[in-house]
C-alpha cells in the first residue's frame, strides 16, 4: 500500500491531475460522444428579429436524403412540454413564455422555428437550409432606448411597454439629501455594451431515450448538470427526475453561458423519445452567436456626490438593462441583486440609490457572463471615481485610498444590502502601485504628453461578492433554487479515495484542487485521490459552478465530509488500538495513541477494517463514506487593486495594452498556479470588452458580429504578460477561509483598461468619458474632435 | 469518393462525401477526437494538425485534398508515457484550463519550434495569433512554449555533446 505522508498540499502550485488527457487529445467532450444508432439534429432559426410564423412546409424536405423527421412548435405543444422557466423571480416580474420551438412568433434572430432530424449532420443541415418557412416580418426593437420609446413595438404582447421589471435598492431620500450639500456632482452617461461569452467549445447535446425503462440520458455542455435535470424533469419535460440522467463530461469553457437551460437540450430529448434513436446536436459557431445567452448590455446614467477634498458623499444610478427576447435562468438577478448590491465598491459611501429597469428587446437573451452584474457595477463606480479624481485634480489612487472601508470596520454593512465579511484594501493598493512602479508611470506619462504616443494608467480597487450563496437569503431575494453545495467522500477497502462534488470543472482545475484539500485532511498521497463530477447518476444533488462558488462552497462541503471520515476513522482506530477515542491523534499519516507513538494504525489499516468489520466497534456502522451539505452563512468578498498601462498612437488611435498588474485577495490560495491562471484569463476577457469585443446589433435586431470574423476577441499578441501579486485576508465564515477567484480578473480588468484609456485621453485632451470598446477609429476621432480639426497637431 | 492518407503513421482508405472537411474526416471517420472544431470560419485554430510537416487548420481543406498526405494529429505527437516537450511544457506551466484549444495550440506551437527553436516572446505571440484561447489569457501558453523550447534546446545540445 501507499506510503503515508504529511506534506501540506493546500497552497502548493501543483501541476494539474487532469491535464494528461487534455494534452494528449484524449479528453472527452460532448461532441466526441458517439452512441449506437445516433442521428443528428439541425436547427432552423429565424432570420428575422421579430416575425409571425405563417407556415412551415415540412413536406418540402421529407424526401431529402437521410431526413427522418421535422419537428415544429406544434410537436412541442402536442407533447405537452412546458415553457423553459426563469429561475429568479423579482416582484411583479413579467416572464414571457419561452417554448422549446417557437409556435407562432419568432422573437430574435436565431430563435428556433423548426428542427430537422436526419441520419448525418450534413443531411440534417442540408434539409434545415431547404425547409420552407413563411414569415410575416414584424417591427423589432434592439436597444433599451428603442424598446422604451413611445409607441414602440411590443416584443411580447404580455409585457406592456417592454418592461419586465422595475427594481430599486438603497435610500432615495438619504441620497437626495447627500447630494444637496455636495461641492461636486460628477455625472456620467455610459453604455456597458453587449458581449458574447464564446467558450471555444460550442454548446452540444446528445440525448438517448430507452423506452423499456422509460430512461433518458443526456450528455450536455453544462456548468451545472443537476440544475438541468431539475428543470427538464420538473418544469419542461415532465420526466420523473430519477429517470433522467444528465452527464456533463469534459466541457470546453463556460463563462456563465453554459449555466442556462436552452431550447436545444429539450429538443434532443424530445426528438429521441419521438424517433427512438439517440439524437445529437452540436452548435456551429454562427449558431452559438445567436443562441448562447449573451452578457452585459446596460445603459446607465449615474451621479457621484463628492466633497471638494475628495470624500464620496452619495451615489445615484439609473440603469436600463437589455434582457433580450426571453428571460433565461438567472437573467432577472444579474442586473439587480448581482449589480445593484455591488455599487458600493470598496468605499464608505453614506448614501446610495439605484433604479434598474429590465427591458425586453428582439435580441438574443442576456444572462450571466463571467462576473455577471459585478463587472457592470465595478466599471460604473470605478469609472466615475476616476472622473471625480480628474475633476478634483487628485491622484486617482489617493482619492480611492481616502475613501476605503478600513480593516477594523468589518463586517461592514453597505447601504445596498450586503455585509462585507472581511477586507484590507490598502495593502493591495500599495502592493499594486509598487509592483507597477506607479510614480514612475506618472512621470513617463507627463514626458510623453503631446507626443505621437501617449500613456494612460488605469487604476481600480474592486470588490466582488461571490461564493453563491446563503440559500435562505437568495430565496428571500427571489431565487427559485438553493445555493448550498454537496460533497461525498468514499474510501475504498484499499485506502483509495473518490471525492464527489456537485460543483463542475470546465477548466477551473477541480480535479487537482479538491484532492489537495482532501490529501491534507486524510494525510494520504494525492495520487490516491480522484475527484468525480458532472454526472447526476453518480453524485449527490449539487448546484454546480458559477458565481465563483466551487472552492468557497463546494470546497467547504468537501472539508466537512472529510472531517466526518476522519472522525469515524478515529473511532475505528481507538477500537483497534484498545484506547479511548479521545487519546487518538491523526498525525504523520497515521492514527496513533497520544504519547505512545509506536502504537498506530495506517489509513489503509483502518479503511480495510471499516470494510471487513471483523474487529470492529459494536455500535458503529461498517463502511467508510460520508456526505456533507454546506450552506454558506454569507457571500465571500474577494478584492484587490489592478493597474493597466496603455499606449495610444495618436496618429492612428490604436490602443496597445502595454502592461497589466493585478494584486488579488481571495483568501488562502489552494493552488497558486490555478488561481493565477484564473486571473490571467479573466483579465484577458475583461480587456477584450474594453478594447475589442462588441456584440453590435443593427436597429432591426440583426447581430452584426455573428462569427469570429466580425467579433474580435483577444489574441496572443493583444495581451501582455500579467504581473501578479496577492494579499491574504481569509473569509471568517467558511471552514477553508477561501474566497473566489474565477471572475475577479474580468470584474476588475474591464474597468482598469477603460480607465487607462480614459486617463490618457483626459490628460492629453481633456476628454472626460467615451464608451467602450476603444477601437482605433473611436479613439482617433475623439482626439481629433477634442483638438480641433488636426489630430496630429499635438505632435508638432 | 475514395481517399487514402496517412495519419499518425497509419494509412487509411475511406469512402467519403466529396464535401467532407478534413477535420470531420479525422474526427468522425477515424475517431481521432483530439482535433477540435471551435468555429466555422477558420479563425479559432482548434483544428490545427500537421499536413506534410506544416501546421494547417484542418477545417480549411477537404479530406480529398489531403489525398496521399502524411498527417499528424495531437494523438500522434506524444503519448502519456512519452510526451512531446510541448505537451510537457503545457502541463508544467499550466498552459491550459478547459483543454479545448490545447491540441490546436500545441500543434501550432510545434511548427514554430521546428523553424524557430529559440523564439522570442513576440515571435511566440505572433505565431499563435491564429489560435484562440478563452481561458488562459495566453500568459501560460507563452510560458509553455518557452519551456518546451528550452527543453528541446537542452536535449539537442546534450545530443551534440
What would you say this structure looks like, in words?
The complex is a heterodimer of chains A (796) and B (161). Chain A has 796 residues and is of the alpha+beta class. Chain A folds into three domains: 154 residues, Aldehyde Oxidoreductase, domain 4, CATH 3.30.365; 177 residues, Aldehyde oxidase/xanthine dehydrogenase, a/b hammerhead (Aldehyde Oxidoreductase, domain 3); 237 residues, 2-Layer Sandwich (Aldehyde Oxidoreductase, domain 4). Helix content of chain A is 28%, strand content 24%. Chain A is built from 19 helices and 28 strands. In chain A, the strands form seven sheets. In chain A, strands 3-5-1-12-9-10-11 form a seven-stranded mixed beta sheet, sandwiched between helices. Chain A has a five-stranded mixed beta sheet with strand order 7-15-14-13-8, sandwiched between helices. Chain B is an alpha+beta fold and 161 residues long. Chain B folds into two domains: 76 residues, Beta-grasp domain (Ubiquitin-like (UB roll), Roll); 76 residues, DNA polymerase, domain 1, CATH 1.10.150.120. Chain B is built from six helices and five strands. Chain B has a five-stranded mixed beta sheet with strand order 2-1-5-3-4. In chain B, strand 1 and strand 2 form a beta hairpin. The longest helix of chain B has 22 residues. Chains A and B meet through helix 1 and helix 17 of A and helix 2, helix 3, helix 4, helix 5 and helix 6 of B.
Salient structural properties:
heterodimer; A: 796 residues; alpha+beta; Aldehyde Oxidoreductase, domain 4; Aldehyde Oxidoreductase, domain 3; 7-stranded mixed beta sheet; 19 helices; 28% helix; disordered N terminus; B: 161 residues; Ubiquitin-like (UB roll); DNA polymerase, domain 1; 5-stranded mixed beta sheet; 14% strand
